[in-house]
Specification:
176 residues, single chain, UraD-like, elongated, 11 helices, mainly alpha
Length: 176
Amino acid sequence: MTIHEVNELSKKDFILTFSWIFEENIVEQVSELRPFPSFQFLHLAMKKIVKKSSLEQKVALLQATPDFVEMITLGSSQKSSLKQAGFRSLSSREYKKFVALNNKYVKKFGFPFVISLRGHNKESVYDSLKKRVKQTEIEEVTTSIEEVLRIYFHRLREVIQNEESYQFTQFDRQSM
């Protein structure tokens, strides 16, 4: 799908296309900001909406994310990312360490540990979890939201693959 095709979607189709990537209320708000010249601008609009959210809304967004340990236990739509990061070959000891630290994290913050696995391996993820469990709630919400936004970026890139340049008219610029 190209950015031009994204811009031409009805609001209903836009929501259906992107609600698997980010929360429906965010998708609805982003839909109103079209047209976008590129997927990066679409991501930027979504990012601005998320960052303007209240702390309670950000925490609710994080609480809606899949639990990291469940992902590595049961597998998920990120199977290739999990495999590339080395989570398909966790030893029993490594798995128990992840579970214990993840449980401590969830108990402290009240939402699952979130990390974009691209560019990580199981050791760097564990180190990140170990470091982040020591953060304050505000620091961790900020860090987790940044990770969610990275995940959104990569998922968006999967949907909008054949990007064409979108030609803005003067009217389009004024409406943004």
